[in-house]
Amino acid sequence: MDYRSVFPTFPRPPGEYDSRYFQDVVRALDALVVAIRNPGEGRQTTIVLTNLQGDEYGLEQGTIFQVAGALRIPQLNSAYVRGLSATGTIGSVSVTTV
Q1: Phi and psi dihedrals of 82, rounded to 5?
Q2: Measured distance CA(67)–CA(53) in Å, rounded
Q3: Which of 25, 44, 28 is nearest to 36 (CA)?
Q4: What integer pLDDT is reported at residue 5 of this predicted model?
Q5: Distance between CA 32 and CA 13 in Å, rounded?
Q6: In the structure, what pLDDT confidence band is assigned to residue 91 with cuts at 50, 70 and 90?
Q7: Domain assignments of the chain as residue spans, ordered by start
């Protein structure tokens, strides 16, 4: 299986202006944008990730972030909340020492 991305080839320019050539260039650019924006298969032997964000704030689904050295990937309906904390009170307690 070939894991390399296949990008469009651009036509060679003619000696004079040709509207078909211009249409071909625009079509190739459109195909390039689609290829860059759409995910595809990948296979790597080595990968280096630098400057990873420490939480999922502002990240799209599937973007890797790290927390305490562990890699995490945001998913829909599953949040890793930035600065999670809570307090609560139930009744009162009196402590007496003698």
Answers
A1: -70, 130
A2: 8
A3: 28
A4: 59
A5: 18
A6: confident
A7: 1-43, 46-82
